[in-house]
Amino acid sequence: MTTTLPQAMGDLLPTDSPSEWRAAVHRAAQLLAPSWPTAPAERAPVGGLAALGLILYALHLTHDQDPAAVPVRGLRDALDSRLDIDKEPYDLKKLVVGALREAGHQFCVSDDVMCRVKSRLLRREEPPADVPFGLGGGVPGPSELRFVAASLKEALSALDEETAAALPPAPEPAGPVSVTVTGQVCVVTENSKVPMTCTECQQSEGAKLTVDGDRVTYTCTMGHASISRSLGAEHVRRAIDRAQAAGRVDGPLHVMHADLPADADLASCACGCAPKSIAQQGR
Predict the structure, then answer these.
(1) b/e for 177-196, b at 16 or more Cβ within 10 A?
(2) I need a surface site. Which of 45, 63, 162, 266 has the fewest CB within 10 A?
């Protein structure tokens, strides 16, 4: 199942998002809607949506433009970035980082959604320690921005100003969602399935999961709430859909770990029981 455009937008738009960031994401979604995949097996360009929204937001900050009024040519110019020695988009990174810094966004403040998006797009994997420099060692892996910049240039190449102006409005983003789980919330990794526990009281039976933007909040029955780093927003939304839950799951709920693809297959439960909804569907 591919990620729908409203789902991808919802992951970028917590309820407390600034209006300018919301406008940037809506404009990015409007421009990418014609090329957004709809076939179940197609991989949706969620990173591209995030990057285009961030570029529009940065151009808004640096040029005092309404994100919806940024011309397609301006976006193409921004994406036509010089590359550094590692083939990373140097000018594009400079635009985004500089604009956020000048606007007062603090990269160390985790509650700032634009900074979280920036960090995900610019993050580079550490180089392998056992590989010689001449064979690729000592060089961090590529950033996500490096790849999505190329795909965005291709997607926008089919648009001119007249075509872009005639595009229909973007769809409404998926809003916050909550579910109460009477059993365990089980995090599925490649090699294990581990029940979540409250960070304060270590309770693992019964919890409420709330998805708001890209954040998942885990609240135990005692009312202790914490942001979960192991549960991705889309992963929880898909788990809720699989369980066909109307605000409540009687029994455990299995959610893929945030580091795994949200559409990865769930295996049989390794934490002691199988979710009723999954068992009933023959999984």
Answers:
(1) bebbbebbbbbbeeeebbeb
(2) 162
